[in-house]
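WARN no homologs supplied; continuing
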Amino acid sequence: MRAFLPLLGLLATATAGRAAAPKPDPAKKPTVILFVGNSFFHGAFEPVLSYNAAAITDENFKPDRSGQRRRQYEHEQGPWGGIPGIFKKLTDEAGLHYEVHLEAISGQTLQFHYDSALAVIQQPKWDKVILHDYSTGPVPARHGGQPARFYEYATKLEQAVHAASPRAKVYLYQTWARADQTYPAAKGYTGLPLDSMTTDLHRAYYQEAAQDKNFAGVAPAGDAWLRAVRQGVADPNPYNAAEPGKIDLWGRDHYHPSPYGAYLNACVVLAEVTGYDPRKLGAREQAAAALGIAPEVAVQLQKIAYEQVKAGRRG
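OK structure emitted
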């Protein structure tokens, strides 16, 4: 894609004289975090799907596939890394000591996790847990959602985590508007602007956090996607010819995240869950390079993630 020339001077300034991040102390107990969700965490396509998988624990991967609840995408290979794998890399570079686990079942809801995966979720070892529902689950029923189910099982899972680990911090992960639900005919948000689905998702996730005070916060990934579109960094409609100089946050199905979308999401989680400013990672950040993201674009996405998390905390 075309380089973002206005940022070159900024990149030179941002990277000059940058001190290396301190390395995590291996003798120190790591912060243990569990990601609970579906393909909006693990991704659907390479290179996101398996990125940094060796550095995290995919709780649903068995080499012989015995006992796996469900796997799909890219011929069901595993284990998977996805956004948790990117997050792990970012924490390592930031000098943070995190042990990352993934409990992700493709196409499933929070109710499914409550009914089928409590043996994983309800363990006392988790210091932090972050979870999301199926992509359309929290939106109003007129758009194909089941919001009552979302509120019920988000609360039940929060309670389950805290019953096993009272000091754990539990977060929600607000997902993004689906282009495939917005632009084609006869879909849940056909004829409505892209921000309509984002607004509904924002409302549901933040309402759940407001009514259940035991949640530690919301990682606003979906709001960050919309911010990227509004700032002219991301293309709002992947069904049209790509706008020059703009990235596509969606993958080839216009549904799951592309490497750009996944990277932005991981930066949002980093900022919300750890409090670390992703802008400090800078143009030389290694996950972005491995995912094929140009340094100047990585800097933009880091900045958008920081801005959105900061805005979410004010609101």
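Strands lie at 31-37, 57-58, 98-104, 128-131, 169-173, 215-219.
OK
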